[in-house]
Amino acid sequence: MIKKMMIVLAVTVMLAACTPAKAKEVTVKFLNYSSINGQEATLAAMIDVFETANPLIKIEVETIGYADYFTQLATRVAGGQAPDVFELNIENFRAYADKGAIVELNVAGLDITKIHPTALKAFQIGSKQYGLPTKFSNVVLIYNKDLFDQAKVAYPTANWTWTEELAAAEKIRALGTDIFGVIRPIQTWEFYKTVAQNGGSMMNADQSAFTLNSAANIEALEMMIARVKVTNVTPTTQQLGGMGDWDLFKSGRLGMLVTGIWAFSDFATNCKFNWDIAVEPGIKQHATHFFSEALVVSKTSKVQAAATKFAAFVSGSPEAAMLRANANWDLPVALTDAVVNAFKAVTPPSNKQAVFDSLQYLVMPPSLEKFSAVADDLQIYLSKALAGELTAKEALDQAQVLISGKY
Amino acid sequence: MKTMEKKVRFYIILFLLPSVLGFIVFSLLPMLSALFLSFTDWDVIGGSPNLIGLKNYIDILKSEEFLRVIFNTMKFISLYIPGIITLSLGVALMFNSNVKHVAVFRVLLFIPVLTSWIAGSLIWRSVLSGQYGMLNNLLAIIGIQGPAWLTDPKWAMISIVIVSIWKDLGFFSLIIFGGLRGIDRTLYEAAEIDGANGFQILKKITIPLVTPTLFFVLVTTMISSFQLFSQIMVMTAGGPMGATQVMVERIYTYGFRYFEMGYATALSILLLIVIVTITLIQLILQKKWVYYE
User: Does residue B132 surpass a pLDDT of 90?
Assistant: First the structure.
């Protein structure tokens, strides 16, 4: 009996030894925020496609809401528990790259040819690629066609400037005491773009000094404020009474709203009137926002190659891009013809071409590690100018002194 | 006998150990590391911190923002503390009298204390909304045009004070009520026999004998005034125009939004110094106005 058992055991051991060694499966931890509230299934579908094509890579996804994301991420990075691959937006990308928390990606052998060049370049420092963009978005002029019809004004075109926009806004404002013409918020994020439309900028070309109080900037801020205080085509905070600009638009009481393309799915569901979009009018030239998210790989990751492969898939593969376009989840960066057509097919808005036309006019905030602190400081002065405590010139003069001294 | 004493000592140490260890690991060490970090430029994601001496402290003390924060905190204290103490005392006196159905009122007043700060602040944010808020609509009925409570720099801090009093009134009136209950009834009887009227009794007996409780309320409200945070974050986030920026809100912003952890910990060490100093001053001054039986 013992002899028999010994033989069975020996045979089992020999068989086990002869079986070819199974290649090792790796697990990649992935942290993201942008799939929360509605796109979790789209992300899960992307991961399914990736895992089917790469059976030895397992993606462990974790999703945190935007409000907590950057605190959680920073804490994990500080504690040596950084996820292998994670999502960063363009505003935070620079800080993580400058501080060496993420690695330069080795993209040799990965297909990144379909990625839109502007988005790809946004996550480079020098010639080094630190992140692979997954989606991008810009800002367009969204308008209420019904209010335009009522005011008997022609719809906006790509050739409009602030002059035509203001004329239309005044006619719409005249429709009723609680109907407003246009909203462009008065805040830092709007300011850097508006001054660019007027030929100004927050910093000089090589970003060595602030130029907050240039003549072009002062003029642009005066124009922004006049719309609230002089023509009142834009509601005051009091008139808004805590109501958000999106809600005002959805209530059908706002003619035009300059906002991001991520509003499309919400407006398509919740607006009970006809609406469409146009390229955002400029003052002397066009300029519009550019926002983008990218996947980056942690410096401490032990599976950097697999993590980079996953990032390249979510970023540049037609499959992931198609899933994204079909789900109306911002604009995929791999803009193949099929993806563009799929994106355009989802209406309203019917003039989705304006989204692609706007890509020529993208401007970015100064690439500063401490931009959010600068933005908060500048905001205080912009609000003082809006409240009438300071003139536009005084506000920007004082902001220039404070911000130049501090950063 | 000696071995017995030794045994007792052993058990004392044994039973104290868990809480002492807990204190060391979860309070003392973090405090010491915060003190260390306040002399560095640590930015959370950038790896190990570099020592930069007193730079954070000098930067804070030189900044215009620090003055604004102190001014805002003082504004809050000067409105909130007299308000909460007077109202709590008034309510406690009412609890102590034989008003009908006072127990129901006591429960109702205590509900805000049990409500979470976040939920309470969210509701108040909509109540205080300038154009659509319930409060301004009620004021409009009697012909008053209410201000933009949370978006006007003149009113934002006042709004925070109102909400804070709403939240804390139930708690502090109950504490003072406890103090009133502790006063010896015979003193009142003696005063009545001597022919003292209601106001004299209040001034000469009730108030002096409730001062130890009032002192407790003063110290705790003073500390919580410096730690003001949740209601500000939900209702104004430090705005408008920095009118509600206070110490803890700044610590949070620098630490977790700008990731300037060294600067944020320096702010928190300064906050600790301010709180300890003010509490010590209160302890010294109490000899002049607090009566112990």
Answer: no
Q: Which of A64, A71, A239, A374 to mutate to test the interface with B (most CBs of B within 10 A)?
A: A71
Mutating which of A93, A238, A248, A251 best tests the B interface, going by the most B Cβ atoms within 10 A? Answer: A238
Taking CA atoms, A77 is separated from A131, A261, A288, B49, B283, in Å, by 17, 31, 33, 14, 44
User: CB of A403 within 8 Å of any CB in chain B?
Assistant: no
Query: Would you say residue A4 has pLDDT above 70?
Result: no
Give A94's contacts in chain B (Cβ within 8 Å): none
What distance in Å separates the CA atoms of residue B118 and residue B290, rounded to the nearest whole number? 36
A102-106, A198-202, B53-57, B97-101: which has the minimum mean pLDDT?
Answer: B97-101
Distance of residue A98 Cα from the nearest chain B Cα, in angstroms: 8
Which domains occur in chain B, in start order? 54-289 (1.10.3720.10)
Residues in Cβ contact with B17 at an 8 Å cutoff, skipping those fewer than 6 apart: none
Q: What is the pTM of this model?
A: 0.80
B57: Cβ–Cβ under 8 A, 6 or more apart, which residues?
A: B38, B266, B270
The pLDDT value recorded for residue B192 is 87
The 10s digit of each residue's pLDDT in A147-184 is 999 999 999 999 999 999 999 999 999 999 999 999 99
Q: Does the pLDDT value for residue A19 go beyond 60?
A: no
pLDDT for the residue numbered A9 = 57
Cα–Cα dist A90/B178, whole Å = 57
How many other C-beta atoms lie within 10 A of the C-beta of residue B170? 21
Contact A127, A328 (CB under 8 A): no
Size of chain B, expressed as the number of residues it contains? 293
Using CB atoms, which residue from B45, B132, B257 is nearest to A243?
B132
Residues 65-84 of A with CB under 8 A from B: 70-71, 74-75, 77-78
Region B215-238 average pLDDT? 91
Domains of chain A: 26-136+291-355 (3.40.190.10), 138-289+363-406 (3.40.190.10)
